[in-house]
Specification:
465 residues, alpha+beta, Thrombin, subunit H, 4 domains, 11 helices, signal, Peptidase_S1C
């Protein structure tokens, strides 16, 4: 009898404990039901042209004329490449936020709503540095999602993702915020997004979908996962809503994003450097290089300085500085606190525009359309001196905008690339570019040489007039 009572009490205690645990878990059904209608599935198609035959351009001059016709490209075929992602509606008239990598290079963008209606979408603007894109569908009275404040998020807080992982429509998953302010450089080694890390199950197809807090507000846009298997292992990263709202507003108003720029090369501060520089602990961003003529140089910032505050924001690690500077409006005058030779110092700096992003050079950068960019579908400008120094190039033209579906986009060009050669002609400046583009033949594969983040690259481009 005593044994049975003991077992009964044990079972009862487990039930009570389980009930208590259950009461501590969030109830998500209303959140998911109310917000799912504003989450969309995005399908894209990119048509890659494939040409069979033909030697690399650098070897063509060595081929005898009698054999040249045998090696000319003969057959072209279209190989559509389909991909998918997620997004969410931010206004009742059809504006939708997603990731740049979801629509990058796409010739067709199709949006599917929860009620199975489908729309062709127009790309309003994209931003490679934040991996965000704004698209629009021709529809009215659509459900939309409220923005939240990602600055209020805390580690351990519950968050919910809705999207289309592996094409499975409108799937929901939940988890907690694992960390804030993660620095993950992009392929150009730039770092302008302080990512939110979560353990929410995010998989391919979730990209561009919303991350909600328990109030049903969007606090992040799911963008990346760390995986060894191709699926979720509990390491996912979202773009903070505080950054995304500003980027989206700029894309909506002018089709591009302007960012602040200091013109410094930085590194982290370790324990030994902190001791040598007179700091009590490793903190701040150590200035390793200052570009001549850059805003930092004009303000008196020097190599060896350790920036500890920028415009009132604490700089704990070197990765914090690009996040804060990038979100500062070009032309703003802000305070910078730093350590120099063991002594604290305060300076005023007028923040510049990140090269390739300033207004004067982007007058032609408007919302993408097929009548922008000429024969190549590229809006280009002269290269700013600061960018020439940064990437160690002395000639060429800077790509400001790439029109989806046209020759430049199909060749894989991106905003920020520097074109140095078209066909077999060098491109030294805008005058060269206009002359060469005018004379380029149509329907023929031509070599193009450009620099991306200072690295030279050869590809082919083909104009279809």
């Amino acid at each position: 009898m005593v044994k049975r009572c003991t077992q009964y009490l044990l079972v009862l205690s487990l039930l009570i404990a389980g009930s208590a645990c259950a009461r501590g878990l969030p109830e998500l059904t209303d959140l998911i039901e109310q917000n799912s209608p504003a989450v969309v599935k995005i399908n894209t198609v990119e048509r890659n042209e494939v040409t069979r035959g033909g030697p690399p351009p650098q070897y063509q001059q060595d081929i005898p004329d009698i054999f040249r016709h045998l090696l000319e490209p003969r057959r072209r075929q279209q190989r559509p490449v389909a991909s998918m992602g997620s997004g969410f509606i931010i206004s009742s008239d059809g504006y939708i936020v997603t990731n740049n990598h979801v629509v990058d290079g796409a010739d067709e963008v199709t949006v599917t709503l929860t009620d199975r209606r489908e729309y062709e979408a127009k790309v309003i603007g994209t931003d490679l540095r934040s991996d965000l894109a704004l698209i629009k569908i021709d529809a009215q009275d659509l459900p939309s999602i409220r923005w939240g404040d990602s600055e209020d998020l805390k580690v351990g807080e519950w968050v919910v993702a809705i999207g289309s992982p592996f094409g499975l429509d409108y799937s929901a998953s939940a988890g907690i915020v694992s960390a804030m302010g993660r620095s993950i450089p992009n392929e150009s080694r730039e770092n302008y997004v302080p990512f939110i890390q979560t353990d929410v199950a995010i998989n391919p197809g979730n990209s561009g979908g919303p991350l909600f807090n328990l109030k049903g507000e969007v606090v992040g846009i799911n963008s990346q996962i760390y995986t060894r298997s191709g699926g979720s292992i509990g390491l996912s990263f979202a773009i903070p809503a505080s950054l995304a709202r500003d980027v989206v507003a700029q894309l909506m108003s002018k089709g591009r994003v302007d960012r602040g720029w200091l013109g410094v090369g930085i590194q982290d501060v370790d324990r030994n450097l902190a001791e040598a520089m007179g700091l009590g602990k490793p903190v701040g961003a150590l200035v390793a290089q200052v570009e001549a003529g850059a805003p930092a140089a004009e303000a008196g910032i020097m190599a060896g300085d350790i920036i500890t505050r920028f415009d009132g924001h604490k700089i704990e690690t070197h990765g914090d500085l690009p996040h804060v500077v990038g979100q500062t409006r070009p032309g703003s005058e802000v305070s910078v606190e730093l350590m120099r030779k063991g002594k604290s110092k305060r300076l005023r700096v007028t923040v510049g525009a990140l090269p390739g992003q300033d207004d004067d050079e982007q007058q032609a950068s408007v919302k993408p359309s097929t009548d922008v960019g000429g024969r190549l579908g590229l809006v280009v400008s002269e290269i700013p001196d600061a960018l020439k120094q940064r990437w160690n190039v002395d000639s060429g033209v800077l790509v400001k905008q790439v029109v989806p579906g046209k020759a430049g986009a199909k060749a894989g060009l991106r905003s920020g690339d520097i074109i140095a050669q078209l066909g077999f002609d060098e491109v030294g400046d805008m005058k060269d570019y206009d002359r060469v583009v005018k004379d380029l033949p149509s329907d023929e594969l031509l070599p193009i040489r450009f620099f991306r983040a200072g690295q030279p690259t050869f590809r082919t481009i083909q104009i279809e007039d």
